[in-house]
Design a protein that fits this description.
The protein has a 7-stranded mixed sheet, with helices on both faces. It has 2 domains: about 160 residues, Rossmann fold, CATH 3.40.50; about 140 residues, Rossmann fold (3-Layer(aba) Sandwich), CATH 3.40.50. About 30% of the residues lie in helices and about 25% in strands. It binds ribose-5-phosphate.
């Protein structure tokens, strides 16, 4: 890094509440940046203060509207680079396009790699993200990446809700590894559901491996968008005798249909998630939101100070 004297934290427009909470944790004010759109929809940004030699952090989860938020982040990075920031860290509490991380059918893109190229080309020197859909996406970047986990934040809350001896359930084979980590931290049992995706909005869960009879279960996953995966898993758990069913999801991105589905699925007691992406306030007690602002704020502080971030992977006692 070129010599950097000071830290500057900027927010894109995707999740200003989270950015403010991160700035509050750091005891800083958010930096001044003007973000707007031209009538034809183009994004525009201008830093309204000097960023020359600054250690710049740009906070922007690339959630819906995904393309607008992505483009806004890219032009913010570009503007900071052209304004001679010493180092630019893109902070993506949620990394959109992550599910398109492999070529599993003919003639499809690997969009997650394309997005990684775009972030690097724009001028990011490093990246902070959380609970990538697959760990391998780290390899799409040739710049340093700090990959954080929501688990250390969610597990203490889950311990209180679930009580002793819960069963952690992976709602599909892809989420089995994540569920195993939760299993270790919660000291519980493990089960996995066999899921088949019929199309982008419909899934079918057919088999369950593991014993859930009379158990309090928690379904863990990196994200939900239609709630289809969660509701299908909850139904099969209930059929197999689960006592109570909760969900712990890092990135909850329910649209109107997803919210309706969650509300009309009595098998799920509550969905516990983070504020990595903005959360709706019309789900009442069905949704519990735990803030990851201290986790991200501490990561930013440690990166700026050149300290290790690996202690953030574990629960604070
Ligand atoms: C898939 O592999 C992901 O981990 C999620 O299980 C999935 O994307 C959730 O989508 P939905 O809520 O639409 O079922």
């Amino acid at each position: 890094m070129k010599t950097s004297s000071h830290i500057c934290v900027y927010s894109g427009s995707a999740n200003p509440e989270l950015s403010q909470a991160i700035a509050d944790y750091l005891g800083l004010s958010l930096g001044k940046v003007h973000l707007t759109r031209f009538p034809d929809g183009e994004n525009f940004c201008q830093f309204e203060e000097n960023v020359r030699t600054a250690d710049v952090f740009i906070i922007q989860p690339t959630c819906a509207p995904v393309n607008d938020n992505l483009m806004e982040m890219l032009i913010m990075i570009d503007a900071a680079r052209r304004a001679s920031a010493a180092r630019i860290t893109a902070v993506l509490p949620y990394f959109g396009y992550a599910r398109q991380d492999r070529k599993d059918k003919p003639r499809v893109p690997i969009s997650a790699k394309l997005v990684a190229n775009m972030i690097t080309t724009a001028g990011a020197d490093r990246l902070i993200t959380m609970d990538l859909h697959s760990q391998q996406i780290q390899g799409f970047f040739d710049i340093p990446m700090d990959h954080l986990y929501a688990r250390p934040v969610l597990v203490p809350v889950l311990k209180e809700i679930l009580g002793p001896d819960p069963v952690v359930v992976a709602p599909d084979s892809g989420s089995a590894k994540m569920a195993m980590y939760y299993c270790d931290m919660l000291e519980g049992g493990f089960a996995v559901v066999a899921k088949r995706r019929i199309n982008a909005t419909t899934v079918a869960s057919s088999h369950l491996v593991g014993d859930v009879k009379d158990k309090v279960c928690v379904i863990t996953d990196d994200l939900t968008s239609t709630a289809g995966t969660l509701c299908a898993a909850a139904k099969i758990l209930k059929e197999k005798g689960a006592k109570k069913i909760y969900c712990a999801i890092s990135h909850c991105m329910l649209g109107d249909k997803g919210k309706e589905k969650l509300l009309s699925t009595p098998e799920i007691e509550q969905l516990i998630t983070t504020d990595a992406v903005p959360q709706p306030d019309d789900l009442g007690g069905k949704l519990k939101v735990v803030s990851v602002a201290p986790l991200l704020g501490e990561a930013i502080r440690r990166i700026h100070d050149g300290k290790s971030v690996s202690t953030l992977f574990y629960i604070k006692h």
